[in-house]
Amino acid sequence: MKAQSAIEFLTTYGWALMAVLVIVGAIAILVTKNNSIFERQSCDLGAQLICQDYEITQEELHLILQNGYGETITIGQIQGMTFTNDIDSLSCPASFPPINAKAKIEVICSISGSAILEKGSSARIGLVVPIQRYSGGPQHNITGHVRARIN
Asked: Across the chain, how many H-helices and E-strands are there?
């Protein structure tokens, strides 16, 4: 008889218990100070310049870029557009050697900010990457972003 009462109770009030658990879980996520663990990490510069690997540290942005253009290109000075997490500016090399089709290049840019970036927090950096065919032609600007946790 006790087992039947317990099953009837759970059947009747189980949905309310589940609702309370979902609400408590949602509140816990919303009030967590550092909820960057739930943010999606990505690096998107389009198909012409493929982001093979990326990392944001407290002082630098590291990128491994692959030429997806199909022919040799040159990359001009990469500019930062939009920043989060107290990042004020991005300082990248002024020029890079020509990159053959399908070849990769490592890019390291310095980050400066008004505060020390907190490890584990999430940062987003918008980028403008000027590219040009090595054989000549007009310069094109590729816009994209890197979003990652700070290591």
From this structure: 1, 9
φ/ψ region of 46 (left if φ > 0, alpha if ψ in -120 to 50, else beta) reads left
**Distance (Å, rounded) from C-alpha 14 to C-alpha 95?**
64
**The CATH number of the domain where 130 resides is what?**
2.60.40
- Lay out the sheet containing 104-113: strands in order across: 49-56, 60-67, 104-113, 87-91
Tokens 């050697």 locate to: 97
* CB 98 within 8 Å of CB 135: no
Same domain, 81 and 137: yes
DSSP-derived 3-state class of residue 131: strand
pLDDT 10s digits, 125-144: 899 999 999 988 899 999 99
Whether 91 and 107 have beta carbons less than 8 Å apart is answered as: no
Q: HSE (CB half, 13 Å, CA atoms) of 15?
A: 2
| pTM of this structure | 0.72
106 with 44, same domain: the answer is yes
